[in-house]
């Protein structure tokens, strides 16, 4: 007698696309599909990034229908659905209609599209400064400094720019929670979104004195917190079922069955953690042992795309200056998470390449040689290395120092005013100069990763490996830089592009099986995560010495920039 294969769908809403993946209980991917989403910018304000729940939902529905069509799997075999999304602020009225967030006369109106303030939007700098001046207990759980990328500064900005009558009718969602609401009609929030991005304090809940102090007392609503949600126990750990599953309308939109289980969501980086850290790995053809639950405390997930998030779980809360958290119940019930991050990594690599004067020449060369631009740049570097008679790319670029915070520092100094720097410019605009700058960007991202890991370990963590996912995992030179610079192995997932959406699919299985304990959740992660590949530290002594020297200069660059800023501010008074 054959046993029916059960399937789960994960939906990953990234910065520029929506992806769905149909997965069985072993982690085997039956089908996947990706659709691009819209982002609106403001040509007069580089801080503005906006999106639309209407647009994203339409793309989600298309991807889900496509994976069913591609796989030939009947909707009746799909037992659970899970969502991850960026930590962006979605705004609707209490009927779920989009509320416009674009500054100007129409802000607060319903009926338009632009109702999401994207995570990368930096409009709320003054609001974040006000919040960080309060000394509230809330700040203890975000590394001492709240980022302007979090939701409360953005909500405060909206209050300042919106008609009070319009503001009072708004519901505010971190984006993963919006999609579970859209699917179920139930506004129960996730611990991941509320604690990590919305100032819901672990073990204590919403802090009325904090919201009153910053000018958002109306959100308290007599203790109901209807605009924010999560009051009176209406908040769940990852994957816990929401409501009664898919509503009839959502099921019709998605092409699934009414009542299909929907798990409480995760921020995209946390889904990347879920989809990677349970992996075994191969080294020299040998498969490692099945990891036990406690091993998750030593495995840092680095989810590396446009930006990079660094996540590690612990049994007890660990407070790290400049690193977000600790967040209780963000993934496993009763466990704690810390989250470091770099606001611009993949985006920075692209920026440095595409703004260089030699970029048109690079594109043409890549086209002629039928190679991608990264491969061309690395081959140019290798030619330079051989011609220079040096051992490594690090030695080739030893006299140039690159600092990567073009979009501010998220961790571990939590300073949005930090900016990028290059020391060692030459009168050179050639394609070989571009290849050097390309490598320096990779190196600086690895150096900053070391800074984040050292900060976490100094505070009480014991990170001994990096589990990497996202598009950057394809860049083996960068992966080796991580291992060599940080001095710990890097484990690459079986599929770098599917790790995050696989984590979302795990939420669907957790919901379908009504799993409730950390041990059960970990077992599902281990069962559904295919073995990865280990990249061990391999820097020769000279290269390691150079990387250590570069790291020392990297740290000094931070101190110098902050001192110079202070000196200029004093001079401008």
Short description:
With 573 residues, this protein is α/β, with parallel strands linked by helices. It has 18 helices and 24 strands.
Question: How would you explain this protein's 3D organization?
Answer:
With 573 residues, this protein is of the alpha/beta class. A 9-stranded mixed beta sheet has the order 15-14-24-23-22-16-17-19-18, sandwiched between helices. Strands 1, 2, 3, 6, 12 and 13 form a 6-stranded mixed beta sheet that branches. A 5-stranded antiparallel beta sheet has the order 4-5-8-7-9. It has a domain at 7-266: ATPase, nucleotide binding domain (Nucleotidyltransferase, domain 5). The relative contact order is 0.13. Helix 2 (125-132) crosses helix 3 (151-161), helix 11 (359-369) packs across helix 12 and helix 14 (431-459) crosses helix 18 (541-571). It has 18 helices and 24 strands. The mean pLDDT is 96.
CATH superfamily of the domain at 7-266: ATPase, nucleotide binding domain
Head-to-tail CA distance between termini:
82 Å
Low-confidence stretches: none
Major sheet strand order: 15-14-24-23-22-16-17-19-18
CATH topology of the domain at 7-266: Nucleotidyltransferase, domain 5
Estimate the strand proportion: 15-25%
**Strand elements, count:** 24
Largest sheet: 9 strands, mixed
Known CATH architecture of the domain at 7-266: 2-Layer Sandwich
How much is the radius of gyration in Å? 23 Å
What characteristic shape results from the CA principal axes?
globular
Name the helicity range.
25-40%
Estimated structural class: alpha/beta
In the CATH scheme, the class of the domain at 7-266 would be Alpha Beta
How many helical stretches? 18
Mean pLDDT comes to: 96
GO molecular function, one term: D-ribulokinase activity
Domain Carbohydrate kinase FGGY N-terminal: 7-273
Family: Belongs to the FGGY kinase family.
InterPro entries: ATPase_NBD, Carb_kinase_FGGY, FGGY_C, FGGY_N, FGGY_RbtK-like
């Amino acid at each position: 007698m054959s046993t029916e294969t059960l399937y789960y769908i994960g939906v990953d809403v990234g910065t520029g696309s929506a992806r769905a993946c149909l997965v069985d209980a072993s982690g085997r991917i039956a089908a996947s599909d990706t659709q691009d989403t819209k982002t609106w910018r403001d040509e007069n304000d580089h801080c503005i990034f906006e999106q639309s729940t209407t647009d994203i939902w339409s793309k989600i529905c298309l991807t889900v229908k496509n994976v069913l069509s591609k796989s030939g799997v009947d909707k009746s075999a799909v037992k659970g659905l899970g969502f991850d999304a960026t930590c962006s602020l979605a705004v609707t009225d209490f009927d779920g209609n989009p509320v416009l967030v674009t500054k100007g006369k129409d802000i607060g109106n319903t009926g338009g599209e632009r109702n999401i303030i994207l995570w990368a939007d930096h409009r709320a700098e003054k609001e974040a400064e006000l919040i960080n001046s309060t000394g509230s207990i809330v700040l203890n759980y975000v590394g001492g400094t709240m980022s302007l990328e979090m939701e409360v500064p953005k909500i405060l900005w909206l209050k300042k720019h919106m008609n009070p009558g319009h503001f009072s009718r708004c519901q505010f969602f971190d984006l993963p929670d919006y999609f579970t609401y859209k699917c179920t009609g139930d506004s129960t929030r996730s611990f991941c979104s509320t604690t990590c991005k919305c100032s819901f304090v672990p073990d204590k809940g919403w802090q009325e004195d904090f919201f009153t102090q910053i000018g958002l007392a109306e959100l308290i609503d007599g203790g109901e917190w209807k605009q924010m949600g999560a009051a009176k126990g209406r908040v769940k750990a990852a994957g816990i079922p929401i409501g009664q599953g898919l509503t009839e309308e959502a099921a019709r939109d998605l092409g699934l069955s009414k009542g299909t289980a929907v798990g409480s969501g995760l921020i995209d980086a946390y889904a990347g953690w879920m989809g990677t850290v349970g992996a075994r790995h191969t080294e020299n053809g040998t498969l490692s042992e099945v990891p036990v639950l406690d091993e998750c405390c030593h495995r840092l997930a680095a989810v590396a795309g446009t930006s990079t998030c660094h996540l590690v779980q612990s049994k007890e809360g660990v407070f790290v200056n400049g690193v977000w958290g600790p967040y209780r119940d963000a993934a496993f019930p009763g466990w704690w998470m810390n989250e470091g991050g770099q606001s611009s990594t993949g985006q920075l690599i692209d920026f440095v390449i595409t703004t260089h004067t030699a970029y048109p020449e690079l594109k043409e060369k890549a086209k002629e040689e039928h190679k991608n631009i990264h491969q061309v740049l690395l081959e140019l570097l290798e030619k330079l290395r051989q011609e220079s008679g040096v051992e490594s790319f690090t030695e080739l670029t030893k006299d140039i120092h690159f600092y990567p915070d073009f979009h501010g520092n998220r961790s571990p100094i939590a300073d949005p005013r930090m900016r990028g720097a290059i020391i060692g410019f030459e009168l050179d605009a050639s394609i070989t100069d571009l290849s050097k700058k390309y490598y320096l960007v990779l190196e600086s991202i690895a150096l900053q990763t070391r800074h984040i890991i050292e900060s976490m370990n100094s505070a009480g963590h014991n990170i001994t490996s990096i589990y990497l996912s996202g598009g950057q995992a394809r860049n083996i030179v960068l992966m080796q830089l991580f291992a060599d610079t940080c001095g710990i192995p890097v484990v690459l997932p079986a599929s770098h592009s599917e790790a995050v959406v696989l984590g979302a699919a795990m939420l669907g299985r957790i919901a379908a099986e009504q799993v409730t304990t950390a041990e059960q959740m970990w077992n599902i992660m281990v069962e559904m995560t295919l073995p990865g590949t280990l990249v061990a530290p391999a820097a020769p002594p000279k290269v390691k010495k150079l990387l250590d020297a570069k790291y020392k200069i990297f740290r000094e660059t931070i101190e110098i920039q902050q001192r110079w800023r202070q000196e200029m501010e004093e001079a401008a008074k």
